[in-house]
Design goal:
With 476 residues, this protein is of the alpha/beta class. It contains 14 helices and 16 strands. It folds into 2 domains: 143 residues, NAD(P)-binding Rossmann-like Domain (Rossmann fold, 3-Layer(aba) Sandwich), CATH 3.40.50.720; 270 residues, Dihydrodipicolinate Reductase, domain 2 (2-Layer Sandwich). Strands 7, 8, 9, 10, 11, 12, 13, 14, 15 and 16 form a 10-stranded mixed beta sheet that branches. Strands 3-2-1-4-5-6 form a 6-stranded parallel beta sheet, with helices on both faces. The relative contact order is 0.14.
C-alpha cells in the first residue's frame, strides 16, 4: 500500500504545548506520522506555551511523553530522535504582541525550497482562543504562506458564546482557514460509518425509520473526572460527550445520503439531522452523579453537575417520525464501552418473546459491526437462537493512525470530510441549550449512583415509555 504523504514544507505549531492534551495525544500522534514517514524533508514542529523551557528541555519533554504514551511495539528510538531534530520551542504569553513578533522572526529564519504551510493547533481551552487568533493574524503576512487553524472542541460553551467566538475568529480568518475538531471523527470506526452506508445499498435499505424500532447510543466510561475536575465542573457530561461526539455519530447514522462525497454535501446532511432533533419534556431526561463526586477537591457541595445523562429524543422528519433515539453517557461506571444499537421492528406475526433483529456498531473496546438475526434450529419443535454476523471496523496494517494523527494529516492535506462546520456546531448547541434549559426550568432530579455500576436505575424509565429496554452491553 502506498501511504499518503505530505509533500509541502510546513510548520506545525502547538499552542498549549505544556498541557495534557499535547502530552497525551498530540506528541504521540506526531510521532506516529513520523514513524510512517508521512512528513516531507522540510518541516518543523513548534511548541508554544507560557512555561519557560529551552529547545533542549522541550525536546526532552516531547520525548518523555511520546515514550510514555505510545504502544511499546511501535516505539523506535532512532525515528524519535530524527523527529526531535525538527522540534523547537517558543516560550511566550498568549496575549502579548511582542512574543508573537519574536515567534514570527523565528519562523522567517527558515530558508526552504518552497513556501511553507503553517498549521496552528489550539490545545487550549476556548477562553484562551481570542488573543492567539488576533496575534496570529497580525504576523500572517510576515511569515508568508498559508496559515490554518485547528480549533479543539468545545467551540464555545453554548449557542450564544459559539456564535460570538466564530464571529470573532472570522474577523481575522476565512472559513477555509479553519479546521474545527471533534476527535471522534478521527476514530476509524466512526470514519467508517459514512463509507459503509455510501458503498452498501443493503445497509441503507435497513437504515430507514419505517423499519426501525429505536436507536441507542451509549458511551460508558470507567474513569472518573480526576484531573479534569475544573473543566468538568463547568461543562458536565452533556456538554462534554453528547453535544458533539454522540450527536455526530447519530447524524452520520441517520442522515440522508448525498449523491456526492464532497465535504460540504456530507456536512449539509448532518446539519439537517442535528437541527431537527427534538426533546419533548423533562421526562425525557435522566441525570446522575456518582456518589463520591462532591468529595473531590474543587467541587462545591451544592454541585448539580451531572456525571451521567440519558435522554430520549426524536428527529423531526417524515422519514424518522416517531422513532425514539436513546442517548446516554456516564463516568465511574462498571466498564468502558461505546456502541450504537439499531433495533428493528418485529413483524406482527412472530413470537413476541423472540429477540428483535439488531445492527450493532461497537466503537470501543473493539471496533466492529454486527448484524443479529434469529435462526430456527429446531426439528419438530421450533427452537430459536441468534445468528450473528460480524466484521471488524478496526484499522489494520502499518498505515493505521490514532484519531488526532488522522486529523492532523487530513488538515495538512486539506481534506475536510472529518471536520465540523460552524453550522453543525451551532445546531448541536441549539439542541443542547434546549436540553439544559429544560433541566434548569423543570428542576430535573439528580440521581445518585454507585461507582462501578450501570448508572442510575431511573434510566430504564426512558426506554420503558416505548416498551423497549436498553441493550445489555455484556452481549457484545
Amino acid at each position: 500500500m502506498i501511504l499518503e504523504k505530505i509533500k509541502t514544507p510546513f510548520n506545525f505549531i502547538i499552542f498549549g504545548a505544556s498541557g495534557d492534551l499535547a502530552k497525551l495525544k498530540i506528541f504521540p500522534s506526531i510521532y506516529e506520522l513520523a514513524l510512517q514517514k508521512r512528513f516531507p524533508k522540510q518541516y518543523r514542529i513548534y511548541g508554544y506555551a507560557r512555561t519557560p523551557m529551552s529547545n533542549k528541555q522541550f525536546r526532552a519533554h516531547f520525548k518523555r511523553n511520546v515514550k510514555a504514551n505510545v504502544d511499546k511495539l511501535i516505539y523506535n528510538e532512532v525515528i524519535l530522535n530524527e523527529l526531535l531534530d525538527h522540534v523547537f520551542y517558543q516560550q511566550g504569553q498568549y496575549d502579548q504582541k511582542k512574543d508573537f513578533e519574536a515567534f514570527s522572526q523565528k519562523l522567517r529564519e527558515e530558508k526552504w525550497s518552497q513556501k511553507a504551510t503553517h498549521l496552528a493547533f489550539f490545545a487550549i481551552p476556548p477562553i484562551a482562543f481570542k488573543p492567539i487568533v488576533k496575534h496570529l493574524a497580525g504576523i500572517q503576512k510576515e511569515i508568508g504562506g498559508d496559515l490554518k487553524l485547528m480549533l479543539e472542541k468545545p467551540f464555545g460553551n453554548d449557542l450564544k458564546s459559539a456564535k460570538a467566538l466564530f464571529k470573532f475568529v472570522r474577523t481575522y480568518f476565512e472559513k477555509e482557514d479553519l479546521f474545527l475538531i471533534d476527535h471522534y471523527l478521527g476514530k476509524a470506526a466512526v470514519r467508517s460509518i459514512f463509507p459503509l452506508r455510501y458503498n452498501n445499498a443493503i445497509l441503507n435499505l435497513l437504515l430507514k425509520g419505517e423499519v426501525i424500532s429505536n436507536i441507542q447510543i451509549t458511551a460508558m466510561e470507567k474513569a472518573g473526572v480526576d484531573e479534569r475536575i475544573g473543566f468538568f465542573e463547568e461543562v458536565g457530561i452533556i456538554k462534554d460527550m453528547v453535544q458533539s461526539h454522540l450527536l455526530q455519530i447519530l447524524a452520520l447514522l441517520t442522515m440522508s445520503l448525498p449523491v456526492h462525497q464532497a465535504p460540504h454535501s456530507i456536512q449539509r446532511e448532518k446539519v439537517d439531522v442535528i437541527a431537527s432533533l427534538r426533546l419533548d419534556n423533562q421526562k425525557d431526561i435522566v441525570l446522575g452523579q456518582y456518589k463520591s463526586y462532591k468529595a473531590q477537591k474543587g467541587v462545591k457541595k451544592s454541585s448539580r453537575t451531572p456525571t451521567f445523562a440519558a435522554m430520549r429524543c426524536f428527529i423531526d422528519s417524515s422519514e424518522w417520525y416517531d422513532v425514539p433515539i436513546y442517548i446516554r453517557a456516564g463516568k465511574k461506571l462498571s466498564h468502558k464501552h461505546t456502541y450504537v444499537v439499531v433495533e428493528f421492528k418485529k413483524p406482527p406475526y412472530i413470537d413476541k418473546n423472540l429477540e428483535s433483529n439488531k445492527l450493532i456498531i461497537e466503537l470501543y473496546p473493539k471496533e466492529k459491526i454486527q448484524i443479529k438475526l434469529i435462526n430456527d434450529i429446531g426439528k419438530e419443535v421450533p427452537q430459536y437462537s441468534e445468528l450473528i454476523s460480524e466484521e471488524s471496523l478496526a484499522c489494520h496494517g502499518d498505515d493505521c493512525l490514532p484519531p488526532y494523527a488522522s486529523l492532523i494529516l487530513d488538515a495538512l492535506l486539506e481534506r475536510r470530510n472529518s471536520f465540523l462546520t460552524i453550522d453543525e456546531i451551532l445546531a448541536s448547541w441549539h439542541f443542547i441549550d434546549e436540553v439544559n434549559t429544560c433541566i434548569k426550568k423543570k428542576k430535573v432530579q439528580m440521581n445518585q449512583y454507585k461507582k462501578d455500576s450501570e448508572g442510575p436505575l431511573q434510566q430504564s424509565q426512558l426506554t420503558e415509555m416505548d416498551h423497549n429496554t436498553w441493550y445489555d452491553a455484556k452481549h457484545l
